[in-house]
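Continuing the batch. This is chain 6 of the set; chains 1 through 5 are on the previous pages. Same settings as before, nothing changed between runs. Recording input and output for traceability.
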Amino acid sequence: MKTSQTFLINQISLISSTEKPIDITESYETLTIIEQLFGSGTYGSIQIVDSEGILETLPFIGEETLYVEFLSNGNIYSNVFTITEVNGITKHSQKNDV
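Output for chain 6:
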C-alpha cells in the first residue's frame, strides 16, 4: 500500500484579502497535504522560514489563502487552500561565526 507521494513544487503563494500574492516558494521548508479517503476534506500544514518579514507585513485574520502549484507524473496541478490557523511561531536570533 502506497501512503505518500513526492511532488515537485512549482509555486507557493500566500494571498491575503487586502494584499497582492506573496511568492513564498523559496521560503517553505515542509508542505504536507492530506486528502481524506472517507471524509469530505483536504487539510495540511506548511512550515515557512520567514526571512522577509511576512508576518509583520501581512495581517493574518483567517481570510488568507495558500496557492500551491505542483508537478506530478508530468502533469501540472494547482489548488487553493484556506488558512485557518497560524501557530508555532518562533523567532531565531542570527549568529555570525567568525
